[in-house]
Design a protein that fits this description.
single chain; mainly alpha; elongated
Length: 174
């Protein structure tokens, strides 16, 4: 497995002539997350890469590391929206968590996240709750999730769902 100790080599790989190398290591830096903070300058530089996929994954890596600017959000959004719409539940969950980290700059994901809260089957309640939380993190303008949260508050089958719904309502505010 790739670890934080490998970050200097991964940073160097972001400048490789081979597209696949740059793309792979942009993804890997994102997988390392906070342990890859020293890669921030190289990832910001990768936002100007000639290849769209490298730019997107560099942006997603920056979000996972904790750097969220307008430019990063704009670059990451197409890939995240695609993952949200077309991935399996694991891919969707990763996209949802990243969108939650982007927060208010992820407004264009509201429709897709709302769709997940409405259509997700009961067995995927984790996905549904994550989407609801991401909507709360995006903040004002997400009032369309209120009926779903009220329904979750009334859920007598699962007290964890009730607690999370109450917390999300607190985050969204009046």
């Amino acid at each position: 497995p790739i670890t934080g100790e490998m970050v200097p080599a991964l940073i160097k790989a972001l400048e490789d002539d081979n597209l696949n190398v740059r793309l792979t290591f942009a993804i890997e830096l994102g997988n390392i997350g906070l342990g890859a903070k020293e890669a921030v300058p190289a990832l910001i530089k990768a936002l100007k890469d000639d290849d769209t996929a490298v730019r997107r994954y560099a942006a997603i890596a920056l979000v996972k590391i904790g750097v969220v600017t307008e430019e990063v959000a704009k670059e990451a959004m197409p890939e995240l929206l695609e993952q949200l719409a077309y991935s399996d539940s694991d891919g969707q969950l990763e996209a949802i968590i990243t969108l939650a980290k982007i927060g208010p700059k992820a407004k264009e994901a509201v429709a897709g996240l709302t769709e997940i809260t409405k259509k997700t089957k009961k067995r995927d309640s984790k996905l549904k709750l994550a989407a609801t939380f991401a909507l709360a993190e995006i903040g004002p303008g997400t009032k369309e999730i209120m009926p779903e949260l009220i329904k979750a508050l009334k859920n007598n089958d699962n007290s964890d769902v009730q607690k999370l719904a109450a917390e999300i309502l607190g985050i969204i505010g009046p």
